[in-house]
Specification:
The chain has eleven helices and 20 strands. With about 425 residues, it is an alpha+beta fold. The longest helix is centred in the last third of the chain and has 19 residues.
Amino acid sequence: MIRLFFVLVLLFTLAPALAESLTPDEQRMANWIDAHSDDAIALLKETVDIPSGSLSLEGVREVGNVMRRELDALGLATQWIEMPAEIARAGHLVGRKDGMGRKFLLIGHLDTVFEAADGLRPFERDGDMAHGHGVQDMKSGNVVMVYALLALNEIGALDDIPMVLFYTGDEEKSGRPLTISRKHLIEAGQWADISLGFEEAQNYDGQDWATIARRSSSNWVLTVEGKQSHSSNIFNDATGAGAIFEAARILDAFYESVRGEEYLTFNAGTIQGGTEVEYDPGQNRGSTFGKTNVVPRKVVVHGGMRTISQQQLDRARDAMRKVVAANLPHTSATIEFSDGYPPMAPTEGNQALQRELSAINVALGRGPMPALDPLRRGAADISFVAPYTDALAGLGALGGDGHTPNEYLDLTTMSVAIKRAAILIYRLSREEVTD
């Protein structure tokens, strides 16, 4: 059913666009953005050269100070939200402005995947290409947010738009519990009418794609107990199957009977099994001891799951619980689920935003932007606010090799991303709102 939805979205997108040319004010913004592309790249370099892995608290704060300087200059009321010490994360930067009409939430993040100990790569430019940790994910998107507002300000359109810019400090390795580390972001989503995420854009085979859906990311831990005994007794009425055979039965049943629903994936990431087992899910590390002549007593499996909706997540968890409950002789098993990033479902409101963005892309000479298959994207902070607001993600520039030392950005797409964002906000802010 959801696959059909994306087919219909594609067909609708390829129909005549909403507005295939720019207005004079939109063209003024586009011209201003082109004239200030070097300034945007200079700000990108400044932030990329600051190491800001999620656990580099001072680095995250330093990047936040740079972005705060830019937001202050735009006249936004800025605030640094500190996290409690037990969260062990730097906090978040928020910029706010009042206005009338539709309320916008723009989302970025200050942190990067790699820490200073990983040997960070500074900003390096080679013609129109740039390398450096965070250059794509997502310090370029952070700059796009600022320069879209600068372009709106250039034509006098910014003053009337109520807006929150929210830069999280721990998107790549979010602080737990999420009820604390994402509390303020969720509150901003409950305030907003439209949420826009500025992680990198997507382009495949020369086609730009719009992100209207992202799958969830959550975890599960399976714990299996068996009866320890000499291995010569395995499978008899007194000993039973042992913990490892029971764990194997469960995982095989997951594969055979739970797998298969579209957009549902789950992975067993680690497994520890034997006579003595220790495992710390927070560190993803464990140790095990066992002997071939001893029936194993315990197994711990740590896995993850991704779904397109909360309903799909609930169905999958129920199906897994049923499998776990059908134990082999003299074994028992439990499965515990922990919530992570929620899904961003492909709603009609998100589809409407995509159509508007596609029309802008056509007006900029880049062709329509169909809806991206959610299998091509991971989870992101925008998912926390998607239940409360229409949402569109992937509004950053184009690059590649994210989460690797070879991360790169096509610098020519910075101005494209800024234009798309500025014109999108401009058009949406002027649309008549109907209940």
